Amino acid sequence: MAKKKNAKVDAKANSGGAARRGGAGNTYLITVVSFVVVLLAIFAAPALLVFAVGMVPSLVAWMIDRTPGHNVTVTVAAMNFTGVAPFVAELLIAGATMVRATAMVTDVFVLALMYGAAAAGWVLLTAMPKVASVYISVRNEARVQVMQRERKRIVEEWGPDVRDAPAARKPAGPKRSKERLEPV
Amino acid sequence: MSEATLHSELEGDGAAQAGPPESVPAEEIVLAGRYKIQPGVVLPHLNTPSARAYVTLDTENPKAALYALVLDRNVPARHHAIINSKRVDHEAMLKPVRWGRIDWTPTGQEEIAIVLPQPPGQPLMQGLEDTVQPWFVRDIKRDLVGPVVELLRRIHDVNLTHRNLRPTNLFRNPEDGSVVPGQIYSSPAGYDQPHLFEPIERAQCHALARGTGDAADDMYALGVTILILALGHNPVAGLDPEEVLRRRIQLGSYSALLGDNKLHTDLAPVVRSLLRDDAHERWGVSDLSNWAQTGRVNPSQPSPVVRADRPFEFDGEEALTARELAHLLSRNWSEASKVVTTSNIEHWVDRSLKDRDLTKEIGECSQLERHGPKRMTPDLLLSRVLTKLDPAGPIRFRSVVAMPDGLATANIPALWDKGMARDLTDLIAGKITSFWHEAQARPKPWMISATEVAEKMSVFLSRTGVGFSIERSAYELNPALPCLSPLLRSSAPLQDRELIETMERHAGDGNFLFDRHIAAFLGARIAGSVDRELTEIGNADEESARRIAQLRLLAYVQSKNSSTSAKKLYAMFLEHLEPVLNEYRNVPMREKLRRAARKAASRGNLNDLVRIVDNRKNRAWDQRGFEYARRRHAQLERSIHRLTNDATMLHRQSQRLGHRISASIASMVAVATAAVLVLMYTG
Q1: Domain boundaries of chain A, sorted by first residue
Q2: How much is the ipTM here?
């Protein structure tokens, strides 16, 4: 009963943690985007147009992202923002008119830079798991070695029969410190 | 000691007149550090059917004329008589000086020996086939009846019986001509007696099951002795004992034994009164004493024996009395058990014997009483019917024919005869002894102790485990029976301490020294109860558990005899308990225990080994630890397998970590870009 209760608590904690992690990512993203959109809508509507058109890859990424924590959306959006932000800044500095904004969003070079930055995000998402894989493999190898040493020690201490499948009930471990072995 | 010296000492003590010893040079054997038994000097006239007599010297009293009886180990000494003989206040009583086990070098075996004073003079007859000068009535009165009756009176006063009176065990003192009865200790009561010296009911029994008897049995043996001495020969010498017994049942003992011989008219009523087959009609000590002193005879009046009009035919023979029929039926048990299920016996008793009461009683034999057996079998029914036909006769049940007071010693032959052991067990379980007691018209002095023996047997025989059953019954009820375990071969320990010492001596022989005999012997001999330990041995379903239980029992026995060291026994158990140590899962603990066991071996204390191999706390720790280790091992197995073989998990982890790193890098780039732009915009 206690174990079931604990399991439930753990499940809740895990699901809550995942929700918080996903929620934090989303909140962060929505906050940044909303802040930028609101600022642009108030002070420079043409810049909002450039921003909206430029951030389309992020929108697409957000729509297709099913990963926990929405790391794909964050990566693509962050890189996409890196590509869009200079043009929005340039528009704001030069004077945010609809003509300039329209010219900017119809400029292939501008679009290529903004979308290229987003593509760089995708490249990052593709390359980094391979790097991580190498790291995890090395780490796992070390863990396996530690576990194999422990396994060998157990067999040496308890004999080869210890390799047999354990009983269903989980027993309490030996209390070496409290129990005195007599008459040895 | 030379033969000449020996002879001179014997002559000096007057013992040389007791017959020439057969001398063969041999090494002396010392009992209790004092009594030197001469295996080379046999005293043939003191031999018994179950023991040989040897000249013995008392080193502290060299003038004492002693002899030692070396017993057959399968026939125990008469322990009750050895103990109670001290209470017999009569100088003619031969009281045992010492008894115990000895290393009998001629055979290389241990034997039981009893050291006794030599009786004065020669036996009245060297053998029962011999012929002697017929005794006159006055000699019989003066030299035989007078002194023997006086001694018997003293013996009976302390609730003992002689049960060994016969011309070959009665000795005539050369000084005054008086007769002195010989020893009574070398075998159970009546065992050494030829059948004709036993009353009919005891003569029918197995020699070891004739029972302790009472004064009437001694008077009967004395009557036969008088008869033989008066005639100068044994009138039934050379006849088949079974034929003599049959004639005694048919004609009565007096007529059957006397045959065509004639007794002196003064002696005939005396012998007839002593040979009455009904013990209650037989002369007692006072009657015989009165005759010896006054010469007056008050012959007992026998009850008439009812004879049938027509004989009962069975197995080619005919019976005319109930007692004859009981004897006839008991000789062919399998056929008799078929006959008893018919109503032939009842009809014969009713119509030919014309005994309505007996007919009714036989008819009621098949009824089950509240305290009787749960199921009636033909064997039980036959045994009951035989008891009704011959109430004074022995208990008869298949191969067992025993007097109730001889059931204790009846266990001994059953030790080697499985069929007899089974019969004895069924007899006790069938409550035949109770039935026999209820069938008796008049009580006898030995009935109470016989009932107690039957109750004890019932307790032991009802359990079949090690330490109980027939072996326990035999050792418990025969205190002088040595341990007869085949594992101990040449040894004959009498006490628990001696058994441990014997086992220690034999421990290196390669056998594992523990069997049903040893267990039962310890259960019977040790002070206090070890039934719990014995039950543990019986209940152990694994070899190792059984070995530990055996060790615990022996350790307990050793602890009760603290001076006994048992190094070889310790080593034997350690060797056989190696699997028990191997059962410990924890290798370091196993090695520690093994080292501790070897270290303690030098002390030879079995309790040390018990504490080492049978430590529950260690076992529990080991068991729990093993389960934990097994679980942990399985857990590690799974983890290693997952880490080395689960590509999906590796991919998933890589993806997750890669995406997280990507997000972090991209976020940092974005923040840096934003920062640069803000700086540029504001700058």
Answers
A1: 10-43, 44-128
A2: 0.75
